[in-house]
Fold this sequence. Notes:
Layout: E1 15-18, H1 24-28, H2 42-50, E2 56-59, E3 65-68, H3 70-75, H4 89-95, H5 98-102, H6 106-123, H7 128-140, H8 142-148, E4 152-155, E5 158-165, E6 169-180, E7 189-195, H9 201-211
Antiparallel strand pairs: 1-4, 2-3, 2-7, 5-6, 6-7
Helix pairs in contact: 4-6, 7-8
Amino acid sequence: xxxxxxxxxxxxxxxxxxxxxxxxxxxxxxxxxxxxxxxxxxxxxxxxxxxxxxxxxxxxxxxxxxxxxxxxxxxxxxxxxxxxxxxxxxxxxxxxxxxxxxxxxxxxxxxxxxxxxxxxxxxxxxxxxxxxxxxxxxxxxxxxxxxxxxxxxxxxxxxxxxxxxxxxxxxxxxxxxxxxxxxxxxxxxxxxxxxxxxxxxxxxxxxxxxxxxxx
Length: 215
């Protein structure tokens, strides 16, 4: 399994850089060109499913959620339930009022999402789907326009986040991002893993959620 998910970043807070008019393709350190496809392989899906005691979900460079386990779906606002929420994390944050309840530190999560999209836009400037996402969010969300205009990029590594669940309440969880290397002709993926402190209220709450709904 270790060969499938590598590149764990150092335990640092979100890294923010003010870039102004600096060309993001240079910043991202990758040649310009169309974005390759993305695919969740069976081994990665087994890893996600096997971490049943921790909330896990996987995103693309466009912030599309493409894999998750039960707890990951629960804590991200219902990814597994068709129609409950947009599976693009940026669209969910900026266009769905429910996201502000799920993520009480909404501004931080919004800045993080926009910063990651800026990195992707520099790496894949000809990605039509990414361009359409950014254009659509800019047209529909004043908050997105405001944050995009700051010019920040954000490298998501590790830290602590708060999420609110309708049954478990407000949870404070540590998180780590794991970078899944790209297969030929594809982009890499990012796996987001959340964990509670040992013997905490959050650990007990996650255990109850993992066991399923109460009778």
